[in-house]
Specification:
There is one protein chain. It is globular, with a radius of gyration of 24 Å. The protein has 18 helices and 22 strands. It has about 500 residues and is α/β, with parallel strands linked by helices. β10 (about 255-260), α11 (about 260-270) and β11 (about 275-280) form a beta-alpha-beta unit. A 7-stranded mixed beta sheet has the order 14-15-16-13-12-18-19, with helices on both faces. Strands 9-8-7-10-11-21 form a 6-stranded mixed beta sheet, with helices on both faces. A 3-stranded antiparallel beta sheet has the order 5-6-22, with no helix packed on it. It binds NADP nicotinamide-adenine-dinucleotide phosphate and magnesium ion (MG). NADP nicotinamide-adenine-dinucleotide phosphate (NAP) binds next to α10 and α11. Magnesium ion binds next to β3.
Length: about 500
Amino acid sequence: MAMVQAVTRQADSLAQFDYSPAAKRVLARKPALFINNEWVRSTHGATLVVEDPSTGKEVGRIVDASDADVDRAVAAARTAFDDGRWSNLPPNKRERIINKLADLIEAHAAEFAELEAIDVGKPVGFASVVDIPASVDHLRYMAGWASKLGGEVMDPQSLPRGTVFSYVAREPVGVAAQIVPWNFPLIMATLKISPALAAGCTLILKPAEQTSLTALRLADFVAEAGFPPGVINVVTGNGHTAGDRLVKHPDVDKIAFTGSTEVGKLINRNATGTLKRVTLELGGKSPVIVMPDANVEEAAPGAAGAIFFNSGQICIAGSRLFVHRSIFDRVIEGVAATTGFWKPRPSLDPQAHMGPLVSKEQKDKVMGYIAAGKRDGASIAIGGDAPAADGYYVNPTILVNVKANMSVVREEIFGPVVVAQRFDDLDEVAKAANDSCYGLAAGIWTKDLKTMHRLASKLKAGTVWGNCHAVIDPALPFGGYKQSGFGREQARQGIESYTELKSVIIQL
Ligand code: NAP
Ligand code: MG
């Protein structure tokens, strides 16, 4: 079959490649939820379609969880937390179990990468070298914290020494509900579950309705890794029903959410009723700034990768490109020169670097922004259109002649669309870069260290990259300034957000 395909396939064909037997097996499964280490049927028959964005065709079904399904998962997590079957384990045992889950994902890396490609539309090559290894990394990094997290002995400042013994204990926060988006499903799932598990929490994971396959496949390995029942529960379904139920549930102690700023604000409001702990990783409109002395041969492809990777569906996308007037044309030509590399292809094509967008809705939204940009007076330097195909492809697009008040400049497009602007000096570009309600990330391209540090200190962003983009590491805190988020994930701060502090003062 593979040979036939190789012979008949046109070089520029957008026809999807065949699925492997392993992927077909996963897609053919009966929709079910993972609760208490068992696959269970929903209390009602509602399902959601699993679609391959490279073809626009239905390839499977998942459960659209009912309120009763969500309640059942929360009850399982609550019991598992309250009886201490997980939080009271020796930390090194928790560490080993989390690492075992990482090993099992790694052992099935090719299958996970293929499922991610089918579900999200992302190139299988990138899924193999980015998504799956990063997911394994998140688990392994946080596993190590299980045995390192602790409290401290602290003397009161107002009492004579030796009259009391006081200490600060760190305890797991309890049951965490974790709601994630569709752009990096397995990374988002592991980024969320790893600190919760290492801290001793139990959890309910709700993947995005469009992309639940890898979270469900991960659940297959939970019991084998050694997690007791009820520690990890996976509930698929709609955000406004299943997600909302989790956010308002009285037995959930913490909400960790990654997604749009709009839904993040809603979740924050809805979690207030029970005053849950909340961490939010939200949208962005990140600037990439190319200073006049930058190496254009590196900066131009860097700026292209910053926006076209994952079809621009990444919260840290470098979607506003600021280039010094003296090199503007050269940099734009350099970005345009990469569009052959980023030409959309079906996700299972081994040659693909950019796939389709995740859904028709997302494609329509992105095309709508491009149309709005044109109406507002922006010009298209390259792209601006979509290949004729059933899949949700959009060509890499650069918009120039844009103004600060245009929707394409202000709003998160979440597609392969960059707006490029000229600037004259550092203070001007810092001000323009900060002129956004978002503050997730920023990139600076310069050879001058002084310029790099001066600009880095002026930018209001949770992460600043110098001469690179999108380098994310579990050891460094990740999160947003302003409306890009609330709290930090990863690193020590990430696991600490799954804990409560308890001060104990004992009179001697
Ligand atoms: P979204 O619409 O905000 O959805 C994210 C998750 O929240 C999904 O699981 C969704 O369920 C659920 N949800 C929706 N409404 C809810 C509600 N009322 N209560 C509880 N849960 C609810 O975001 P998306 O469209 O999937 O992802 C794109 C957005 O995520 C972009 O804006 C992007 O910037 C942001 N993002 C941010 C980061 C970051 O780290 N900062 C990372 C990735 C993406 P459904 O599946 O049913 O919609
Ligand atoms: Mg899908």
